[in-house]
Design a protein that fits this description.
Chain A: It comes from Prauserella cavernicola. Chain A: Its EC number is 2.7.13.3. Chain A: One of its GO terms (molecular function) is phosphorelay sensor kinase activity. Chain A: It is an enzyme of class 2 (transferase). The complex is a heterodimer of chains A (about 475) and B (about 220). Chain A has about 475 residues and is of the alpha+beta class. Chain A folds into 3 domains: about 160 residues, Beta-Lactamase; about 90 residues, Helix Hairpins (Orthogonal Bundle), CATH 1.10.287; about 140 residues, Histidine kinase-like ATPase, C-terminal domain (Heat Shock Protein 90, 2-Layer Sandwich). In chain A, about 55% of the residues lie in helices and about 20% in strands. Chain A has 10 helices and 12 strands. In chain A, a hairpin with a 2-residue loop joins strand 3 and strand 4. Chain A is rod-shaped, with a radius of gyration of 54 Å. The two termini of chain A are about 40 Å apart. By secondary structure, chain B is of the alpha/beta class. Chain B has 2 domains: about 120 residues, 3-Layer(aba) Sandwich (Rossmann fold), CATH 3.40.50.2300; about 100 residues, Arc Repressor Mutant, subunit A. In chain B, the strands form 3 sheets. A 5-stranded parallel β-sheet of chain B has the order 2-1-3-4-5, sandwiched between helices. Chain B has a 4-stranded antiparallel β-sheet with strand order 6-7-8-9, with no helix packed on it. Chain B has a 3-stranded antiparallel β-sheet with strand order 10-12-11. In chain B, strand 1, helix 1 and strand 2 form a beta-alpha-beta unit. In chain B, helix 2 runs parallel beside helix 3, helix 6 crosses helix 8 and helix 7 packs across helix 8. Classes of the chains: A alpha+beta (about 475), B alpha/beta (about 220). The interface between A and B is medium-sized, with 29 and 28 residues.
């Protein structure tokens, strides 16, 4: 969503700048065009009036009579007004626009004065000039005759309007061009930004090989290079961490394997000692039985560790075969002397294609957990549909520890810190979960209302077609 | 009870396992290397060989192959890893059974007794099935008049299957009757043994007549 917002903002900014620029340019050019056109029209009009007045004044006699004034007015051309004292000669419309102020100015300044006004009929140029008289000594003085003329500026205004229109049209043409350019520029800026976003997402999703292409040498290229550098550093760190984790897991696997050799000896010796225990002194007997018991626990721990490291290294494999699930569960419980202690609720006829040994590990660990961390009665319920086999183990203990729904599956998770040792290896539930997952299933821990903890393992009943 | 040859390079295991098996009544001789094991095997003719796979010099797989080349002596291999690779390779090399370290001597003892029982003759009876002559009393097999050499395990599988011709035995049933394994027996033991058996008695092992596979269930003898 962000890049789209950015694109809109960029385009808007471009359009705004373009509009302001175009309007300013049009305004400026309109202003100057208008000024020069008006000036030119004024100049022409005033020059014309000056010329016409000059042509007539030479033949004037003073004081002029009405006829002279009429001749002068005719020479200037309508609409015009010529005054001399109380005499005046007028012709044409719009003479009412000539104000007293204009007349006073003409009289005071003794020079040509003009004024632009906008009347109801349109723009008008008002021109007023005193007729100067040259005396015999060459001095010029106002003769007292004043000539006023009104000139129509409409054609000029029309030309100005036309040029303004042209300016607006040009600006309007610039607008789509600006949008196109803005989109281009936005694309140029946003493509790298989008790529950056996409690459960052790929990195976040775990594709640590994701890199940006560095193009050109601008700020975006620099940003891309910095980003790539960061990604490389990240990859190095992650690689290092993974290597360390793999090393430590391999170390655990190696140690576990190495322990098998001395454990083989210990197991053999323990069995010999156990056979002799009855003939020993009480102290020696107790020591022997302790050693035997601890050897068995150690063996179990090492075997579970090796099994866990198989899952860690991805070498755990499924050997699926047809299994009568109820019988497999019964065999599992019987082998551990638990068949009589568990309430089994299972249909007889459920078959599935599972790894028999892994199913055994799963059931044994869930039931073992129910007895060590929960309390009897322990219920094992088996259900199946076309897709899945579901094994539920419910105990009547205190239920899951606080916040333990997920943590119980952690390796060596201890709900109660004071309880440092238990029957199992501490890996039982973790292994149960791994075995369920290997079957395309899961184990979910929860509390059974009216009872204790409940573990529900689901296993894919048949292998997927493609595997 | 039995003459056992224990081929194991670790001295502590050799000593302790030998002692423990001795207490189960076996006469145990030990060899430290594969070469020594092969030599002792030829000289002493043990009834069972317990063979560690990880040996210096020639490894357990090779020892297994060489033993098989000239003898049907039951071989129980001891794998340190319990990995599929070891098990499959060991079985292909001709081992009859396997245990995983650390093994309990009583379990190993049970396996030894089980392999030995495979060689025990049944009440004398000779059967002929389309050119295949089974002498249950003499524990011999002949195909088209030619004697066929089977290991005790192969022979026992053949005898179990041929006891009820045309009837399917599951791998699990065979594991329990021939190998005397519990419910978690490894069905690859059966498959591997059947393969070797077919190679010896079938005219065309790829389309077997005597030992037929019933997909998803197990094996059956015939019908011939």
């Amino acid at each position: 969503m962000r890049p789209r917002g950015l694109r809109v903002r960029l385009v808007l900014a471009f359009v705004l700048v373009t509009v302001i620029g175009a309007v300013a340019a049009a305004w400026a050019s309109y202003g100057s065009a208008r000024g020069s056109m008006v000036d030119e029209a004024q100049q022409r009009a005033t020059d014309e009036i000056r010329r016409r007045v000059a042509a007539v004044t030479a033949d004037l006699t003073y004081p002029p009579d009405q006829g002279a004034l009429d001749r002068l007015r005719a020479a200037v051309g309508a609409p015009a007004l010529v005054t001399y004292g109380s005499l005046s000669s007028a012709e044409g419309t719009g003479l009412g626009l000539l104000t007293g102020e204009l007349r006073a100015e003409v009289r005071d300044r003794e020079a040509l004065v003009f004024q632009r006004v906008t009347s109801d009929e349109g723009p008008r140029l008002l021109v007023g000039t005193p007729v100067m008289r040259t005396s015999v000594d060459g001095a010029r003085a106002p003769s007292g005759i004043e000539v006023y003329a009104v000139r129509d500026l409409t054609p000029t205004q029309q030309r100005i309007d036309a040029s303004a229109e042209a300016a607006v049209r040009t600006s309007a043409l610039a607008l789509p061009l600006a949008i196109v350019l803005a989109l281009f520029a936005a694309g140029g800026v946003l493509r790298p930004v989008r790529e950056l976003g996409g690459t960052a997402r790929r990195l976040a999703d775990g594709d640590l090989d994701a890199r940006l292409r560095v193009r050109g040498s601008d700020e975006l290229a620099e940003l891309s290079a910095t980003f790539n550098h960061m990604a490389a550093e990240l990859q190095d760190s992650v690689d290092e961490l993974r290597r360390m984790e793999a090393d430590s897991r391999r170390f655990v696997a190696d140690v576990s394997h190495e322990l098998r050799t001395p454990l083989t000896t210990l197991t053999a010796v323990a069995e010999v000692l156990e056979g002799e225990a009855q003939r020993m002194t009480p102290d020696a007997r107790e020591s022997t039985l302790l050693a035997v018991e601890e050897t068995r626990k150690l063996t179990r721990l090492v075997e579970d560790l090796i099994e866990v490291s198989r899952f860690d290294s991805g070498t755990a494999s499924l050997r699926r075969e047809q299994v009568w699930v109820r019988r497999a569960v019964e065999d599992c419980l019987r082998a551990r002397g638990l068949l009589d202690q568990v309430e089994l609720d299972a249909p007889d006829d459920v078959t599935a294609v599972l790894d028999r040994r892994r199913l055994d590990v799963l059931v044994a660990n869930l039931v073992g957990n129910a007895f060590t961390h929960g309390r009897p009665p322990v219920l094992v319920r088996l259900r199946a549909d076309d897709e899945q086999v579901e094994v539920t183990v419910v105990d009547h203990g205190p239920g899951l520890p606080e916040g333990g729904r997920h943590r119980v599956f952690e390796r060596f998770y201890k709900a109660d810190a004071a309880r440092t040792r238990s029957e199992g290896s501490g890996l039982g539930l973790a292994l149960a979960l791994e075995n369920a997952r290997l079957h395309g299933g899961d184990v979910v821990a929860g509390d059974e209302p009216g009872a204790g903890a409940r573990f529900v393992a689901t296993l894919r009943r048949f292998p997927r077609e493609d595997t | 009870m039995a003459q056992v040859l224990l081929i194991e390079d670790d001295p502590a295991i050799r000593r302790s396992l030998g002692m423990a098996l001795g207490r189960h009544g076996h006469r145990v001789r030990a060899a430290e290397t594969g070469e020594d094991g092969l030599r002792q095997s030829r000289a002493e003719r043990p009834e069972v060989v317990v063979l560690d796979l990880m040996l210096p010099g020639i490894d357990g797989f090779e020892v297994c192959r060489r033993l098989r080349a000239d003898s049907g002596v039951p071989i129980i291999m001891v794998t340190a890893r319990g990995d599929d690779f070891d098990v499959v390779s060991g079985l292909e090399a001709g081992a009859d059974d396997y245990v995983v370290k650390p093994v309990e001597p009583r379990v190993l003892d049970a396996r030894i007794r089980a392999v030995l029982r495979r060689g025990v003759a049944e009440p004398q009876r000779v059967e002929t099935h389309a050119g295949l002559v089974l002498d249950r009393g003499g524990m011999t097999v002949a195909k088209d008049g030619e004697p066929v050499t089977l290991t005790p395990t192969e022979l026992r599988v053949l005898l179990e299957l041929s006891r009820t011709p045309g009837q399917v035995l599951s791998r699990q049933q065979l594991l329990e009757s021939v190998w005397e394994h519990d419910y978690l027996g490894d069905s690859r033991l059966v498959d591997n043994c059947v393969q070797r058996l077919r190679a010896k008695i079938e005219t065309d092992p790829a389309s077997p007549v005597f030992v037929q596979t019933v997909r998803g269930f197990g094996y059956r003898f015939g019908p011939v």
